[in-house]
């Protein structure tokens, strides 16, 4: 099972590296920006009081009691807005973010490090979007069952939120490192060294 999971992650990383072309990255980025520019103003029109609501998406460590207090502070219209927001907008955005982070970090890593480097797998940090989706599931669940207060779900929501922002910080660091190393290499795709090639041949011979 562990081997299969590692193999799946390796394949995902390799796919990102294969797809990391300038045009595709720009297309995903354009879709991300266009999505935000069009939908965010519409959300404000649908529920004008949204800006005044306390958000559970912020990088704040809320206890279960604090989380329930915030959900209770929303009126019925606010809870309905939050429900549909996390089922629609906050579902599409993490998916687009996953694609953009995976592709853009792959593009930088290809120009910052050699193909055989384990650092090439850092593009898998894009999987941090999974925690955003899990956070949304917890939020939706708490709104649906309100006024019930599932303590476990509230704590899971906090864990997923903190994990999401932890991944975001890691991604920012990887992008900065990638930019510096890629710039040092004049943004040229790095080729495998002779040592990497010899090791690959030995591995291939061993498998035969």
Explain this structure to me?
The structure is a single chain. With 208 residues, the protein is an all-alpha fold. The chain contains eight helices and no strands. Helix 1 packs across helix 5 and helix 2 (22-46) runs antiparallel to helix 5 (89-112). The radius of gyration is 21 Å and the shape is elongated. The protein starts with a helix and ends with a helix. Residues 203-208 have low confidence and may be disordered.
Map the helices and strands:
Elements lengths: L1 H18 L2 H25 L17 H10 L2 H12 L1 H24 L16 H17 L5 H34 L9 H14 L1
Helix pairs in contact: 1-5, 2-5, 3-7, 4-6, 5-6, 5-7, 6-7
Classification by helices and strands: mainly alpha
Averaged pLDDT, please? Answer: 89
Please report which band the strand proportion falls in: under 5%, 5-15%, 15-25%, 25-35%, 35-45% or over 45%: under 5%
Task: Please state the CA-atom Rg, rounded to the nearest Å.
Answer: 21 Å
The stretches of 5 or more residues where confidence is low (pLDDT under 50) are 203-208
Q: How many individual β-strands?
A: 0
What is the 3D form?
elongated
| Total count of domains | 1
Return the string of H and E elements: HHHHHHHH
